[in-house]
């Protein structure tokens, strides 16, 4: 009897072959993705390096494209925006870095939001505006760092003095805990619980929106330094008194007692009455 030959089926493949094929596909896809990511990162680094070299001329181009519509090509202002003559680099940096400018929409007050420009672009525009319309400049490092004036041997940083000055000059709007507060006509004083030292100084010097300008006749540079040191200390201080309730004082505390305290007493009274009946 003739022996039958066994033929291997050509239509089937080993499961290992399928797994190997999938693995090879994943490796190729991963390699392509890694290469593309590296190329994009390299391009981004190159762009960042180029942005770090922005000049006053670059600032002028950015200003013309983004700011001149409201403030005018000559910075004299238009019906849509005020003049920038004399605002200086410090005001420009403050408005752009806090996202208040460019203005999103007309309203009682420009809200703080994420900045539209990079730090290098902001500095370039600030340098351009300052070159055309000089004004308040960036402070010396010791002011925002909360350090003593190196030119005055008798100068000392005083957080307690800064807190006292803040209560006298700022707390009526910003709240004694720097939590902010409401003003008239839909305006408000923003919270200072996360504001940087530079922007605290800029607000005191340039007086944005409803903020008054505190010149050297009102507060010396050392006084401003002490206020900044007090606010930064308050930002970093750990709250040990339980719930802050927004740091709004008697308003939030009274509301909490009225709702939860009296509410609990009423509920207890109802429960006792129901049990007795």
Automatic annotation (TrEMBL):
PTM statement from Swiss-Prot or TrEMBL:
Binds 2 heme c groups covalently per subunit.
User: Which species is this UniProt entry from?
Assistant: Microbacterium esteraromaticum
Keyword Manganese in annotation:
no
Q: What is its EC number?
A: 7.1.1.8
Reaction(s) catalysed (UniProt annotation): a quinol + 2 Fe(III)-[cytochrome c](out) = a quinone + 2 Fe(II)-[cytochrome c](out) + 2 H(+)(out)
Q: What is this protein called?
A: Cytochrome bc1 complex cytochrome c subunit
Per UniProt, heme c 2 binds at 170, 173-174
State the superkingdom.
Bacteria
Binding partners and assembly: The cytochrome bc1 complex is composed of a cytochrome b (QcrB), the Rieske iron-sulfur protein (QcrA) and a diheme cytochrome c (QcrC) subunit.
Which residue spans traverse the membrane?
Answer: 255-274
Q: How does it sit in the membrane?
A: Multi-pass membrane protein
Question: What single Pfam family name could you report for this chain, choosing any that match?
Answer: Cytochrome_CBB3
């Amino acid at each position: 009897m003739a022996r039958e030959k066994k033929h291997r089926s050509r239509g089937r493949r080993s499961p290992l072959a399928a797994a190997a094929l999938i693995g090879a596909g994943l490796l190729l896809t991963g390699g392509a993705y890694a290469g593309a990511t590296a190329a994009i990162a390299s391009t981004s680094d190159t762009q960042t390096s180029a942005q770090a070299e922005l000049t006053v001329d670059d600032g002028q181009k950015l200003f013309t494209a983004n700011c001149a519509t409201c403030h005018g090509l000559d910075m004299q202002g238009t019906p849509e925006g005020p003049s920038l003559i004399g605002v200086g680099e410090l005001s420009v940096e403050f408005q752009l870095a806090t996202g208040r400018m460019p203005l999103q929409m007309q309203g009682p007050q420009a809200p703080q939001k994420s900045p539209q420009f990079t730090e290098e672009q902001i500095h370039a525009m600030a340098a351009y505006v300052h070159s055309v319309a000089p004004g308040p400049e960036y402070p010396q490092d010791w002011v925002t760092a909360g350090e003593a004036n190196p030119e005055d041997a008798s100068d000392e940083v005083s957080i307690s003095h800064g807190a006292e000055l803040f209560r006298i000059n700022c707390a009526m709007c910003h709240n004694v805990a720097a939590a902010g507060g409401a003003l008239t006509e839909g305006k408000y004083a923003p919270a200072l619980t996360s504001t940087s030292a530079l922007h605290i100084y800029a607000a005191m010097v340039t007086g944005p929106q409803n903020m008054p300008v505190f010149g050297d006749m009102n507060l010396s540079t050392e006084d401003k330094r002490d206020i900044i040191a007090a606010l930064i200390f308050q930002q970093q201080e750990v709250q040990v008194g339980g719930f802050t309730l927004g740091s709004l004082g008697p308003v939030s505390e009274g509301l909490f007692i009225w709702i939860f305290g009296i509410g609990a007493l009423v509920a207890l009274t109802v429960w006792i009455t129901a049990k007795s009946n």
